[in-house]
C-alpha cells in the first residue's frame, strides 16, 4: 500500500477543519435533507479514496479544500433555499462558485468547482476537464455503487465502506435525492431539458411512477 493510500485508510472519515470547510458545512447542512447531506459527505470521502487509488495526493495533485467544497455543494441546486430556475447541476454550480468567491477563493478556484459540479452528471465530459472534475464524479459515482472501472474495483473496500456508512448512513439516499431532483425539475420547464438527467428523471416519474435510477439502486453495491 502506498503512503497516500495508507494515510486515507487510517483517517477515513475525518473531515477538513479549515475555516472554509466549516463554512461549507454550515452552509449546506440546514438546506438539505439528512439523506442528501450524508450523500454529499460520503461523496467526498469516496472521492479521497478514489484519489488514493489513482495515486493522486492532496496538495500535490489536487486541492483538498476545493474537493470538499465541490462534493459538499454539488447538490445545492436542489437545496430548500434555492431559486430553482435552471438545471439543478448548473444552479448548484452557480451557487457554489458564488460562495467560494464570497469566502476569498480566486476566480480560477471558483471556476474549477463550477465545472466539477455542473459536469458531475456528464460522463465522458467531466473526465476530460481536469483532476477535480474526475474526482468529484468518481466520488459521487462510488456513492451510487458504481466502480471506477474494471481495473479499479478495489477503490473502496468493504471495510472502508462500512466505516463511511457508519459515520454517514445512507437513509434511502437514491429515493430521497431523486425526490429532490424531480421536485426541482417540475417547477419550471427550463429546469428539466429533455435528455438531461433532471428531465429524464421527471419524465420517468410522471410516466412510470418510478425512475430507472431507483430501480437500479436495489441491485447496486450498497443496495439502495
Features:
224 residues, 57% helix, Hypothetical protein af1432, 11 helices, disordered N terminus, mainly alpha
Structure description:
With 224 residues, the chain is mainly α. It has one domain: Orthogonal Bundle (Hypothetical protein af1432), CATH 1.10.3210.10. It is built from eleven helices and no strands. It is globular.
CATH topology: Hypothetical protein af1432
Architecture, according to CATH? Orthogonal Bundle
- CATH classification class: Mainly Alpha
The count of domains is 1
Q: How many H/I helices?
A: 11
User: Helicity, in percent?
Assistant: 55-70%
- The number of strands is 0
How much is the average pLDDT? 90
- Gap between N and C termini, in Å? 31 Å
* Series of H and E elements: HHHHHHHHHHH
The major pleated sheet works out as: none
Strand content: under 5%
Low-pLDDT stretches? 1-10
Would you tell me the structural class of the helices and strands? Answer: mainly alpha
Give me the CATH superfamily: Hypothetical protein af1432
